[in-house]
Amino acid sequence: MSDTPRPVFPHRHLLGIEGLSALDLTALLDLADEQVEVSRQVEKKKSTLRGRTQINLFFEPSTRTQSSFEIAGKRLGADVMNMSVASSSVKKGETLVDTAATLNAMRPDLIIVRHHAAGAVHLLAQKVDCSVVNAGDGAHEHPTQALLDALTIRRNKGGIEGLTVAICGDIVHSRVARSNMLLLATLGARVRLVAPSTLLPPGIEGLGFETFTDMRRGLDGADIVMMLRLQRERMNGSFVPSTKEYFRFYGLDQEKLSWAKPDALVMHPGPMNRGVEISSEVADGAQSLIREQVEMGVAVRMAVLEALASHLPNR
Ligand code: CP
């Protein structure tokens, strides 16, 4: 397998799914399939990013995204620095733009950014000379999550076009939902949004997505059931009466899952709140792809880093 980066992706940054073509997305997913094989070998190391510096800059907590970007960068041979925002000068009032200028002066090749504000990653990308990857910005986008979800679906269902995917739960606050809606629609899936009306974005029906406030109707005939966490950190006020009530009507248990197709598969981006949006029986059951999503996360992030490698400065 050649370690030479290939120009499969004609963009310098990955800031969102918005604006990417079906060709761009398929190229990344094909490349990610190759990285799954690399990650399953005893020898996992490649040299695509040898000599390159990758900074992971996370202003919000993360388990899956930060660790998988670190593993992905290291598997490709990069020097990876995890910047701890909690102990950085951000805590002393330094602005995002000044933080970006400071890091840029250290000549990184890639910066991976998670930020609580929608649009912050786009702003940072304008202030630095290197490639930038959005690891989640507010309720806006989480492109590598959508890509890893698509890779997981594609590997289990043989394709995405024509599938019915029900995205269920806190849609209005979810960057995962937004990126998935864009990606799945671009690749030809039928996307349904299932949630109480308080958790559906206003005016979303006009954008061509089917919406349901009833789980039975929303799950009927679904190939994929994608559950979302209630994102309390982004809620301003009360959106559901109680978590007990929410689970009763919208939490995915074995009975509600039986309303989808018999071979329906269950996904969740994590972190999960068991007993709120999903039961343990379903999360750990035979139809769950949740652990596989985590494995695909490393492969997708390797693919994204490798695809951006051909755009790095000084090549
Ligand atoms: N799915 C996801 O983004 O998880 P983390 O917040 O743990 O990175």
TrEMBL record:
<feature type="binding site">
    <location>
        <position position="270"/>
    </location>
    <ligand>
        <name>carbamoyl phosphate</name>
    </ligand>
</feature>
<dbReference type="InterPro" id="IPR036901">
    <property type="entry name" value="Asp/Orn_carbamoylTrfase_sf"/>
</dbReference>
<dbReference type="Pfam" id="PF02729">
    <property type="entry name" value="OTCace_N"/>
</dbReference>
<feature type="binding site">
    <location>
        <position position="92"/>
    </location>
    <ligand>
        <name>L-aspartate</name>
    </ligand>
</feature>
<feature type="domain" description="Aspartate/ornithine carbamoyltransferase carbamoyl-P binding">
    <location>
        <begin position="12"/>
        <end position="154"/>
    </location>
</feature>
<comment type="similarity">
    <text>Belongs to the aspartate/ornithine carbamoyltransferase superfamily. ATCase family.</text>
</comment>
<feature type="binding site">
    <location>
        <position position="142"/>
    </location>
    <ligand>
        <name>carbamoyl phosphate</name>
    </ligand>
</feature>
<dbReference type="Pfam" id="PF00185">
    <property type="entry name" value="OTCace"/>
</dbReference>
<feature type="binding site">
    <location>
        <position position="229"/>
    </location>
    <ligand>
        <name>L-aspartate</name>
    </ligand>
</feature>
<comment type="pathway">
    <text>Pyrimidine metabolism; UMP biosynthesis via de novo pathway; (S)-dihydroorotate from bicarbonate: step 2/3.</text>
</comment>
<feature type="binding site">
    <location>
        <position position="64"/>
    </location>
    <ligand>
        <name>carbamoyl phosphate</name>
    </ligand>
</feature>
<feature type="binding site">
    <location>
        <position position="145"/>
    </location>
    <ligand>
        <name>carbamoyl phosphate</name>
    </ligand>
</feature>
<dbReference type="GO" id="GO:0016597">
    <property type="term" value="F:amino acid binding"/>
</dbReference>
<comment type="function">
    <text>Catalyzes the condensation of carbamoyl phosphate and aspartate to form carbamoyl aspartate and inorganic phosphate, the committed step in the de novo pyrimidine nucleotide biosynthesis pathway.</text>
</comment>
<dbReference type="InterPro" id="IPR006132">
    <property type="entry name" value="Asp/Orn_carbamoyltranf_P-bd"/>
</dbReference>
<keyword id="KW-0808">Transferase</keyword>
<keyword id="KW-0665">Pyrimidine biosynthesis</keyword>
<feature type="binding site">
    <location>
        <position position="114"/>
    </location>
    <ligand>
        <name>carbamoyl phosphate</name>
    </ligand>
</feature>
<comment type="subunit">
    <text>Heterododecamer (2C3:3R2) of six catalytic PyrB chains organized as two trimers (C3), and six regulatory PyrI chains organized as three dimers (R2).</text>
</comment>
<feature type="domain" description="Aspartate/ornithine carbamoyltransferase Asp/Orn-binding">
    <location>
        <begin position="161"/>
        <end position="307"/>
    </location>
</feature>
<feature type="binding site">
    <location>
        <position position="65"/>
    </location>
    <ligand>
        <name>carbamoyl phosphate</name>
    </ligand>
</feature>
<dbReference type="InterPro" id="IPR006131">
    <property type="entry name" value="Asp_carbamoyltransf_Asp/Orn-bd"/>
</dbReference>
<protein>
    <recommendedName>
        <fullName>Aspartate carbamoyltransferase</fullName>
        <ecNumber>2.1.3.2</ecNumber>
    </recommendedName>
</protein>
<comment type="function">
    <text>Reversibly catalyzes the transfer of the carbamoyl group from carbamoyl phosphate (CP) to the N(epsilon) atom of ornithine (ORN) to produce L-citrulline.</text>
</comment>
<dbReference type="InterPro" id="IPR002082">
    <property type="entry name" value="Asp_carbamoyltransf"/>
</dbReference>
<feature type="binding site">
    <location>
        <position position="271"/>
    </location>
    <ligand>
        <name>carbamoyl phosphate</name>
    </ligand>
</feature>
<dbReference type="GO" id="GO:0044205">
    <property type="term" value="P:'de novo' UMP biosynthetic process"/>
</dbReference>
<dbReference type="InterPro" id="IPR006130">
    <property type="entry name" value="Asp/Orn_carbamoylTrfase"/>
</dbReference>
<dbReference type="GO" id="GO:0006520">
    <property type="term" value="P:amino acid metabolic process"/>
</dbReference>
<dbReference type="GO" id="GO:0005829">
    <property type="term" value="C:cytosol"/>
</dbReference>
<dbReference type="GO" id="GO:0004070">
    <property type="term" value="F:aspartate carbamoyltransferase activity"/>
</dbReference>
<feature type="binding site">
    <location>
        <position position="175"/>
    </location>
    <ligand>
        <name>L-aspartate</name>
    </ligand>
</feature>
<dbReference type="GO" id="GO:0006207">
    <property type="term" value="P:'de novo' pyrimidine nucleobase biosynthetic process"/>
</dbReference>
